[in-house]
Amino acid sequence: MADTDGLLDARTFTGGERPATGFHVKGAHAQDWGLQNRLARIFRPDNGRTVMLAFDHGYFLGPMAGLERIDTNIAPLVPQADAIMMTRGALRTSIPSHSTAGVVLRASGGPSVLRDLSDEHIAIDIEDAVRLNAAALAIQVFIGGEHESRSVANLAKLVDAGQRHGVAVLGVTAVGKDMVRDARYFRLATRISAEMGAHIVKTYYVNEGFETVTASCPVPIIVAGGKKLPEIDALTMAYRSMQEGAAGVDMGRNIFQSDHPAAMLAAVRAVVHDDAKPEEAHELFRERSAGSAAS
Ligand code: R5P
């Protein structure tokens, strides 16, 4: 029991007009404390932005280039990431449990790259996600795909489970090979995920009208890197995404398939968190990669 002798009277009841508890993640002001806390493990409280390192590709692609050994290729990069996105198998086997990056777990799966990728199911129980201290669960949404309806239903089920346990859900916009990747499509797909309850939506950058995608989505948009590009091009895409309203990147191949993954991750961080211009970030990449085989 606390010592109650000499207690001071409460006397400071003012402190500015805005509530001191305003929340920094778009669309999440009405969420419960636990869910907000988990979102804050992904999006930095000082600027609402995130650099998420994605290495979940093996769940349908197997050991692709750069992901042959997650323990040696990826784990050393994790301290530089605000959040990491991977399967529970990769997390348990290959990522140190003292890592402080927000954990975003891949929660859907089923088909391999040899089959119809939209034929996915929920592939994790919320109880295991909580056991793994997940901040969010990521699920693919195939708008216009063969199994569109089931993928939307999967998202809704995961949102129900996430709301019950205070775990956020990331809706991943999946684009089929034959689909047009334009702002109109991404407005449709991202908005559907947000309306179904996703707390974060991932999509691709488009050169024309990307700001209409971010403006019409009521939750944060993060941008996938896509196929490996020259570093300056990937940094330019990240820069434009941020300037046009994205809250961060969820980047995989453009980091782990770079000859200098750590240097590239540092350059991406400069773009996302410091508003570095692509050329400045590329200079940082060159400095950090100079003289080392793979850093
Ligand atoms: C697809 O396999 C995953 O959702 C990836 O995490 C996502 O596409 C981001 O990775 P990348 O930057 O390589 O496209």
From TrEMBL:
<protein>
    <submittedName>
        <fullName>3-hydroxy-5-phosphonooxypentane-2,4-dione thiolase</fullName>
        <ecNumber>2.3.1.245</ecNumber>
    </submittedName>
</protein>
<dbReference type="InterPro" id="IPR041720">
    <property type="entry name" value="FbaB-like"/>
</dbReference>
<keyword id="KW-0808">Transferase</keyword>
<dbReference type="GO" id="GO:0016746">
    <property type="term" value="F:acyltransferase activity"/>
</dbReference>
<dbReference type="InterPro" id="IPR002915">
    <property type="entry name" value="DeoC/FbaB/LacD_aldolase"/>
</dbReference>
<dbReference type="GO" id="GO:0004332">
    <property type="term" value="F:fructose-bisphosphate aldolase activity"/>
</dbReference>
<keyword id="KW-0012">Acyltransferase</keyword>
<dbReference type="InterPro" id="IPR050456">
    <property type="entry name" value="DeoC/FbaB_aldolase"/>
</dbReference>
<dbReference type="Pfam" id="PF01791">
    <property type="entry name" value="DeoC"/>
</dbReference>
<dbReference type="InterPro" id="IPR013785">
    <property type="entry name" value="Aldolase_TIM"/>
</dbReference>
